[in-house]
Amino acid sequence: xxxxxxxxxxxxxxxxxxxxxxxxxxxxxxxxxxxxxxxxxxxxxxxxxxxxxxxxxxxxxxxxxxxxxxxxxxxxxxxxxxxxxxxxxxxxxxxxxxxxxxxxxxxxxxxxxxxxxxxxxx
Length: 122
Prior knowledge:
By secondary structure, this protein is mainly beta. The protein has strands at residues 2-6, 9-12, 17-24, 32-38, 44-50, 56-58, 66-71, 76-81, 90-97, 111-112, 116-121. It is built from no helices and eleven strands. The strands form two sheets. Strands 2, 4, 5, 6, 9, 10 and 11 form a seven-stranded mixed beta sheet that branches. The chain has a four-stranded antiparallel beta sheet with strand order 1-3-8-7, with no helix packed on it.
């Protein structure tokens, strides 16, 4: 399985971005897909995850601002980010898991994309 993340960039506070994560390879084994982020000098943390049935989980800091979705036909997951804040600045990584439990645990995600940088200016 290979994951290709895209859509990052520079945006002002209050702006929006949409990240995409395209999966290729043995995609039938993918159950959960998720987004994590790593801010400078900090650990990588969960942003949002979604399972095959559409169940989602979000970090408290992004609830009501971010929306994760997936398009099975296109083997792609999306992260719509609205009302962005400077503290959202980070490298965003997409991930995929073979376990369909909508896990928030990073260790459950075997496949990772290369990361896309999101910078929110104040």
